[in-house]
Amino acid sequence: MTTILDPTSETQPITRQRVARPASIEGLTVGLLDISKPRGNVFLDRLEELLVERGLEVKRYKKPTFTKPAPADLRYQISQECNLVIEALAD
Amino acid sequence: MSGAPLPNGIVAIVKRDCPTCELVVPVLAQLAESAVGLTVFTQDDPSFPPGIEAVDDTGLDVSYTHDIETVPTLLKVSDGAEVGRLEGWSRPDWEAFTGVSGLGVELPEWRPGCGSLSVDPDRVDALRVRFEGGVLRSRRLQLAALEDEMEALFERGWSDGLPLVPPTEARVLRMLEGTTRAPDEVVAVVPPILVETTVEKIAVNAVMAGCRPEYLPVVLAAVEAACTDTFNIHGLLCTTYFSGPVLVVNGPIARRIGMNAGHNVLGQGNRANLTIGRALQLVIRNVGGGRPGRDGIDRSAFGSPSKLSFCFAEDEANSPWKPLSVEAGFDPDVDTVTLFAGHGPSAVVDQLSRSPEDLVKTFATRIAGSFDPFFARRLDNMMFVVGPEHARVFHGGGWDKMRVRQEINSAVFAASSRGVPDAAWNSPAIVFAGGDAGMFSAMIEGWVSGPMGSQMICHEIRG
Questions:
Q1: Per the CB < 8 Å rule, is A4 touching B141?
Q2: Which residue of A6, A72, A73 is in closest CB contact with B139?
Q3: How far is CA B200 from the centre of its chain?
Q4: A1, A5, A10: best mutation site toward chain B, by most B Cβ within 10 Å?
Q5: Total-model pTM
């Protein structure tokens, strides 16, 4: 992983804007991101069943810990493999 | 950078992989027995020197933070502060330094030391990040391991269209070695968003542009000069016209950093010429937010290839004339960068004239094609880069730069009812550069000049 320094005046947030919501989710690949909070997987398992019933492709991901932002590698992987991502918060 | 704590007394810094350190092991043993209070720090092998309990400095904390360049080095420490330093082995010096006589009587009298691991070229970048990375204030961005670094920089919109060098902490710290100015020193307020920029931010962009550290003072001076009301980079950026900043470097720094002033002077192939001008443009783009296109404030209808980097040096070593900077009022040994709002170049061809009187007509005719003497009163939006073969004709006839300039003005304004204006150093500017074969010069046309536009500025380069 490479760390670089921001060459701008830092008046804009680092995080890039989300893509626009699609009009339909038909035919898309959906990522389900478990943030590693207890029982988040229960919610995501049910979502996966519902999405697969509708014929969507589902990929599962998990953050190493809920206390920190998702690692850059994981964010990049999701952005390359999915059209949408659903992140589950649970307790 | 504050140094790691040192014990009082005599401190020796050594490494096993140094024949001089091996040589002085018996001397270190003598000093350990003496009353000087010896502490040995070892850089590579904590079991070295044999028989002496050494402090492990394999992390190089002590060596780096106390600027150790050679091993062995002896430090004299009092109240935790260094009060004396000795490098390599020399019996008389060691005896005088420690106050202990009879040191290493079987050893040769003198041996030079070896390089300290803390200045090893393969390690120094990582050490600099570890010990000095804290001075960098810029926001850190992490790129994913699978993300292509070059593509990532394009995607974030920082590029002028060419690949950028990723500005890692190590590269930016190395760049900052090129200046004596503090990283957090404010250099200029950069348009169009009028934000303060620091030495560090300019160093980040200079890394991306491909600059070497020794170019940084030129880039800093160029940013300072560009962001003045005199030069008016804001207006130059916004205009629908072709021009961009043209940079001419004068003084000893031009040769020292390897700038091109000879063959292909306005072309490709020289790193300093190509990256210094580019760094200025990247600062305007990334710090100032000045971007071309639909969502940007750069509204140039055509632009010009010279908006990537238009930067060169005057060939002072071969010039028969005073340098541009001297005409502008600086001493010959002062480094300067001159900024001019221009574009091009276009060719001035005359392979036949053998007298200054004939040759200057070609220059004046060349101006007439793009300049309306009834509209503008001065030629201060014009620069000529006079090649050696044309300069030979002018100089051979006894004409200096000012004479050339006056004669150009006389010819251009001959038909003007308002007479011929006085010629100043910048109307037109004349620079000696180019390859030594070819009876050509280059004309660099400019944008709106004077207080209503952009005025040529010659600016001192500080360290």
A1: yes
A2: A6
A3: 14
A4: A5
A5: 0.84
Residue type, B253: I
Give domain limits for chain A.
29-88
Q: B9-119 adopts what CATH topology?
A: Glutaredoxin (3.40.30)
Q: Quote the CA–CA distance of B433 and B318 in Å, as a whole number.
A: 9
User: B216-226 and B271-282 are packed helices; what angle lies between their axes, rounded to 10 degrees?
Assistant: 40
> Burial level of A80, CB count in 10 A (0-12/13-18/19+)?
exposed
C-alpha span between B63 and B66 (Å, rounded): 6
- At residue A19, the pLDDT reads 80
B60, B117 in Cβ contact below 8 A? yes
User: What is the ipTM metric for this complex?
Assistant: 0.81
- Under 8 Å CB-to-CB from A59, ≥6 apart: which residues? A29, A30, A31, A32, A81, A82
Alpha-carbon span A49 to A58, nearest angstrom: 9
Chain A contact present for B208, CB below 8 A: yes
Please check whether residue B164 is in contact with residue B208, taking contact to mean a CB–CB distance below 8 angstroms. Answer: yes
Residue ranges of chain A whose CB lies within 8 Å of a chain B CB:
1-11, 14, 72-73, 75-77, 80
Task: List chain B domain ranges.
Answer: 9-119, 150-460
Backbone φ and ψ for B280, nearest 5 degrees, come out as -60, -45
- pLDDT tens string B283-330: 999 999 999 987 788 989 999 998 999 999 999 999 999 999 999 999
